[in-house]
Prior knowledge:
Elements: E1 6-12, E2 21-26, E3 29-33, E4 49-51, H1 55-58, E5 64-68, H2 74-77, H3 80-85, E6 93-97, H4 99-112, E7 118-122, E8 128-131, E9 135-141, E10 150-156, E11 159-163, H5 181-190, E12 192-198, H6 212-224, E13 229-232, H7 238-250, E14 254-258, H8 260-271, H9 285-288, E15 296-300, H10 310-315, E16 329-332, H11 341-353, E17 357-359, H12 375-385, E18 389-393, H13 397-409, E19 424-428, E20 433-438, E21 444-450, E22 453-458, H14 459-465, E23 467-474, E24 481-490, H15 498-514, H16 521-540, E25 545-552
Parallel strand pairs: 3-5, 5-6, 6-7, 11-12, 12-18, 13-15, 13-16, 14-15, 16-17, 23-25
Antiparallel strand pairs: 1-2, 1-19, 2-3, 4-21, 8-9, 9-10, 10-11, 19-20, 21-22, 23-24
Amino acid sequence: MAKPRLRIIPLGGVGEIGKSMTVYEYRNDLIVIDAGAKFPEEDLRGVDLIIPDVGYIKQRLNKLRAILLTHGHEDHIGGISFILNEFKSIAPVPIYGSELAIAYARAKLEDYSDPKLADFRVVEPRKRYRLGQHFEVEFIPVTHSIPGSYAIALKTPLGWVVHTGDYKFDPTPPLGPRTDEERLKQLGREGVLVLLSDAVRVERPGHTPSEAVVSETLDRIIGAAEGRVVLTTFASNITRIDQAIRAAHRHGRKVAISGRSMEQSTRIAQELGYLHPPDGVLVPVEIAMTLPRKQAMLLTTGSQGEATAALARIASSDHPHIRLTPGDLVIFSATPIPGNEQTVSETIDQLFRMGIKVIYPDIEPTVHVSGHASREELKHMLRLLRPRFCVPVHGEYRHLALYRELALELGYLPERVVIPELGSVLSFSREDVRREGTVDCGPVLVDFVTPTHAVLRRRDEVASSGVIIAAFVIDRETGKLIAGPEVTAEGLNGKVSAETLAKVTEEFKRFLAKQKGGFSHGYLVSRTKSVLGRQLYRRAKFRPLILPLISEL
């Protein structure tokens, strides 16, 4: 009889940045680490989010023991509410993580699902938790760009498996403890079978700078600004939000927060004691806009050029409260996720056209530092843990390949460093690793038909349910319509009549004619989708996937 083997299956987060999710399976026990989402890339504008396909887990729900969260960033928890909807038959599902990650996950369930689908359990560092017959789990603090970040150590019948999550070795983290190197070293002495390591920054030599560097840069930039200051970053980047608020306070500025996710994130962080804004520094946006320009700072969503975020609306002169004027300053305290570069560039260009000064990492590198380990830190983790097998995760394919080269430089044998593929089944014994086929793991498209209601669209369902494509050409400088729009229906099988499509097209033309130009490309995509979606539902009671195709001349 064959000896049982440990199966590790990445459903997201390898060969890509985002939607991190990994299955660990041994005999009759199955656990999942992370349940992330990712922003769509340029060729999928019109889609709001992408999450992993959990069909493999749904077929084995009787074996699912828990979902473990490494930290509270969108690419690691952003799919949790939609994924738990798929697991309703065994609700509540145990969810383990830090206090902050759990709070963020709970908020997502409150927005898009039901918190009763989860049994939330806040963990303590170094404490062991039994999961089923064959797994124990321990959470090990690591530094990242958000407090409450953990590496996860799984004790299996074959030995320890360490899943690093996102990490770096920051000696001076502004919030939270330093990476627990002593415990990692102990695990190395006890014997680590497999290391699954963050690899996204393997191209960068040396060490990633400390978050403390950003505090100094923000203090200098905000202190020198003459007009209003707008800072955009990830809504869950509590460290950056704390740094920005403190810098603003030192220079006599009040701070307002704009963007639903950032408002929610900041509120949760305050409730949990991660943020302690000085008394009186936080004010409503409406109040901030009445202050002298040199006394106001705004923290907004939109660092990735997201079409519906506050900054996109500001850049399109469509925000209900915020209007910027020449001489104001926008700070991008984030780097674009791969695939978002064009969208971010378009937002920055539009701000420059408005006469706004913009500072971003390409011209001021320390306005943001990565939360991920550079080459020397990746080597340090390998030396601490001394795993028998290495599996790079969290990176595009070149990152995974370069990590493999790094491990080989340290003396690892080629057969012990495995580059995973999405859906590939990696099967481990104490002596070897082998590939045992693949499981279905295609992307699932999340389409928000209203702010609080989403439709999940799988690839095969898109083919059968159809798509509306809206194509038009606009003037790059003025935003005026040059040609189109041409609205076509593909694969709708009579659900939308030609007459309805013609009327929707005419109404959409009238909408475009009213636009005065001066908007970000991503924002126009969002407005196209919302206007067409509203008209189609009103006339045909149908919500298809809508993909705007906008060309600029």
